Structures are given as structure tokens and as C-alpha cells.
Amino acid sequence: MLRRRIPPDGYITFSDLTMNEFLSAFKETISAQEMSLLPLRQFEGEIILVEAPADVREAVSCLKRARVLGFDTETKPSFRKGNNHKVALLQLATHDQAFLFRVAKTGIPDALRNLLSDPRIMKAGVAIHDDLKALQKIRAFKPGGFVELQEKAKKMGIRDFSLKKLCAILLGFRISKSQQLSNWEAEELTPQQMVYAATDAWASLIINDKFQQVSP
User: What distance in Å separates the CA atoms of residue 90 and residue 182, rounded to the nearest whole number?
Assistant: First the structure.
């Protein structure tokens, strides 16, 4: 496994909020101009790239220590109608580590399949239905413990609920989407791709943290 350390400058923490305080603190929508004024943030913990099937079990053992994980996937973009690619990368993040599974190379071994099916470990993400459906094309499994953050946002009255906009509305910062259309099936991922992928999963985790603060 390749481990990449990005020096952290501290994890964002939030003060306790009552439901009424929370509801009055966020916007239902946010404009591109408003977003442009926000600071840009990225994941600043350790990134672990898992490219060999033999390394999957060790990575999963680390992830199983967490109660909640951030979840996302990446797929090579297709610019031709009807020419779709399989999921290339699965990201699972804690607050200080992000594991990037190159499932195009590793597949979904038993240890990873069991983690994805484990209802005791929450996996929080945005627009996860299609991600799970695509992962199930690699190997069948029964999803367990997955939480759709868009549903939580809708219940709070938020009307802009892409990952990028949820970060802006709920967390007060921007995340870059510059690597979204890059080649996720490349022989080697660039440092920029790895940070981008880690950030997406981490952002889902801390958005979930925000919602958990005001859940009954």
C-alpha cells in the first residue's frame, strides 16, 4: 500500500447547536458568487492507496475500528453516449485517514465486501444509489449501514445538495472539483487525484458529523 502524508493543520470542530440555531444558521441555497468567497479546503490527513488484493484485508482492518466512514467512488468519465466505465476507485475515510481502493485492479475481495455489508459501521455519502449500483456490478453484495446525506439535507430544507454545495452551506468552505473528469483508470494516480478523491470521502464524513450534532 502506498501511504501519502499531508501535514494537517487541525481538524474542523463545530460548537454544539440546538435544532433552531442550526436551522437559522444555514442557507437553503448558495450562489456561485457566494461560494467563490469561501476558503478552499482539502483533506489533510494520511492517504493510503490500496492497489493490490493482498493489501485489502489490512486496510479494512484499520477501517473497522471506526464507527462512521465517509464514502465515495470515482469512475473514468465517458465522452461517448452508451460507453460507460466501471467504478475505478472506492474511497472510505476517517477523520485522519483516507483509504483509496483501486477496485479496477483489486476487485472487491471478501474483506471489503463484508465491510460494505456491515450494518454496524455507518458509511455516509452523497448520491450513493448509483455508486452502490455500480459497485455491485463488480461483485454482488448487500449494502449495510449506508446513509444518504442528500436525504438528511432535504429534511432540513436545504435545496442545493451536491457535495460541493453541502460543504459550502453546512461547513463554510469550498472543495475543488478540478479532478472530477480526470482519468481514474490511469496506471498511476497523480497526487492531485489522490487528494481530490480523499477530500470527497472526508467531506461526506464531516457533513454527517454536522447533521449528527442536531439529530434528536
Answer: 15
The pLDDT value given to residue 143 = 98
The full set of domains in the chain, from first to last, is 2-211 (3.30.420.10)
Q: What is the pLDDT of residues 136-170, one digit of tens each?
A: 999 999 999 999 999 999 988 898 889 999 999 99
Q: How far apart, in whole angstroms, are the C-alpha atoms of residue 19 and residue 1? A: 42
Residue 76 buriedness (CB in 10 A; 0-12 / 13-18 / 19+): middle
Alpha-carbon span 167 to 147, nearest angstrom: 17
Place of cell 461547513: 171
- Provide the pLDDT for residue 12: 34
Contact 176, 40 (CB under 8 A): yes
Residues of the chain with pLDDT under 70: 1-26, 79, 82-83, 215-216
Please tell me the distance from the alpha carbon of residue 216 to that of residue 213, in angstroms, as a whole number: 9
